[in-house]
Input
Amino acid sequence: MKLILTYVIGLIFGLGISMSGMANPEKVLNFFDFFGVWDPSLMFVMGGAVTVSFFGYRWLFKRYETPAFEPKFIVPTSRVIDAKLVGGSLVFGVGWGIAGFCPGGALPALGTFDPAVWVFFVALVAGIFAAKFMMRFTASRVARRAT
Output
């Protein structure tokens, strides 16, 4: 049941991204083009998503103590703004601004078989592995210094 619900939620997300036009990199890039063909629709899509999430989480946490298929809710608890957070945000933002895709918008766009989407996706996966490698490498260096 968990797998089916995960699929349905992903399908709804993909349909929303596709219907809003956010799987189209030109539409996303036009949001960042303030002095050209500026398109504010991304702002409304993000605003709608943040609003639904804000009220949805409030309702969910009041109504349920635990999720249906997990032992506890997994939500961020840290409020620390550190180099990892800032660096990751910068890389995400620059990549989004250059390619016109965020990871969530690129996944439904893979079905178009556009080579640009696939190049972005491969770069995304490579970046994930590079980040994991760097985190392990840094952790091992810190551990060696501590001993």
Observations:
- DSSP finds six helices and no strands in the chain.
- Helices lie at 2-20, 25-31, 41-63, 83-99, 103-109, 115-146.
- The chain has one domain: 2-146.
